[in-house]
């Protein structure tokens, strides 16, 4: 169903635009950040003594996940 919608959008709009690319990358980054946050909370719940290390690693992971959305923004609208 979704590949068919993508094909129709590409045919009618003259190609897939940067907005679509950015939407997909943003959704992926949001899912990644949510999963990292959920697992960090779970890890602290299991071992409260490791909260400092878990916080540091989760912040680094969230920053790397958010970088994907920033790269997509640059790729989507940087060539104009």
Short description:
This protein is mainly alpha-helical and 80 residues long. The chain has three helices and no strands.
Can you characterise this structure?
The chain is an all-alpha fold and 80 residues long. The protein has one domain (16-77): F1FO ATP Synthase (Up-down Bundle), CATH 1.20.20.10. The chain has 3 helices and no strands. It has helices at residues 2-12, 18-46, 51-77. The longest helix has 29 residues, at 18-46. It is elongated and about 55 Å long. 1% of the residues are buried.
Unreliable stretches, pLDDT < 50, 5 or more residues?
Answer: none
Number of helices: 3
What is the CATH C level class, in words? Mainly Alpha
What can be said about the biggest beta sheet?
A: none
